[in-house]
## 1
Amino acid sequence: MNSFDQSVQQKLSIDIAADSLTIKQYKVISGHMLRTFLPKSKTKIPKIIRFTLFSVLTWLVFSIFSTSFYEYFNFSFSISAWRWKSSDDYEIVFDLLNTSAFVAIIWIFALGMILTRYLTCRYSQKYYHQYFKVNIQIERVLRFEQNGITIIVKSGISSFIPWSSVKGTSTIENIFIIAFSNGSWVWLPQENDENKNVRNSLIKFIEDKLTDMEEV
């Protein structure tokens, strides 16, 4: 291993090269971290499906009781559009009344949700690439100590994470992941002939430390 700073190279440390993680692997690991370590949703049904089911159920209820409902409350609800054919003549493009108008509003809202989700996904892809280039695709050293983990990037900036802030570990595509309680994570690169011994020693050390933390 070639360290960019030999002064931080110690027995329980490992160099992380700038190209040790691809953008595809970063996305896969990020998604895994969200599903594994963030609070689980109470339901596994996607929001858009739940909203669709609610819309259909609402439409059925209003369709069945539409006449009595609108007569009982003595009101009507409509959505219409028209275009002028001449200065004193026009034609109706569409005219939705009561239940049909109500359902149209629901589905317009649903389409707005879908569009918002689409735009959010596009923005997320852009954010992924920017964040990956600035924060992931840089050289760093991970130093493992009795009290925690020190992360030292090429610029010399370092941060310390105590073992109490380590939420768990996971292995994805032979990449060992260490997740922290604030949602961030670091990784040990894939095993190769050069880092095999150091990597295996570090994994054993990390697992032993987390086991000790659970027993305390």
## 2
Amino acid sequence: MQQEGHTMDIMGTWVYKYVLNSWWFLWTIAVLIIAGNFLAPIMIWLIMAGKRGAGGKKSADEPGQPE
């Protein structure tokens, strides 16, 4: 059963006022998102290059290569 007119006031909590709504927290989240956007393609490229080699050629241990 839900009480009428009873809502959770998150904006009145200490955590919202002094942590979630602080400039340092918002800038930390923004910098993490921007850094992730720059680093994700680099990390994907490194993972894919490790599977095929840096030049994009198949490595010798992959099947289908003549010995």
